[in-house]
Amino acid sequence: MSQAAAPAVPLPVRIPIREIVPWAVFVVLLALIAVYFVSAEQGATSIFANMYVHEFVHDGRHLLAFPCH
């Protein structure tokens, strides 16, 4: 008689918090920059003098319910 081998149980991979924190901070920073450009990059709060950024994110602004005109 042959014995069936027991299936190997996969062990969970542990990811140290110290490895996640820099990436989480980076992603949050990118998200805040994106929200700024979509929501507030126009008029008195604009960083760039032209309307290029406003026109580039115009449809996204309306999609996310930010008024712009």
Q: Give the N-to-C terminal Cα separation.
A: 80 Å
**In angstroms, what is the radius of gyration?**
24 Å
Which geometry do the CA atoms define? elongated
Low-confidence stretches: none
Number of strands: 0
The percent range for helix content is 40-55%
Strand residue percentage: under 5%
**Which sheet architecture does the biggest sheet show?**
none
Q: State mean pLDDT (0 to 100 scale).
A: 83
Q: What is the number of helices? A: 3
| Helix/strand class | mainly alpha
Order of helices and strands: HHH
What does it look like?
- This protein is mainly α and 69 residues long.
- The chain has a domain of 47 residues.
- Helices cover 49% and strands 0% of the residues.
- The longest helix has 23 residues.
- It is elongated.
- The chain starts with 16 loop residues before the first helix and ends in a 6-residue tail after the last helix.
- The mean pLDDT is 83.
What layout of secondary structure does this protein have?
Layout (H helix, E strand, L loop, with lengths): L16 H23 L12 H5 L1 H6 L6
Quick summary:
The chain crosses the membrane at residues 20-38. By secondary structure, the chain is mostly helical.
Q: Which features would summarize this protein structure in a list?
A:
single chain; transmembrane; CbtB-domain containing protein; CbtB_put
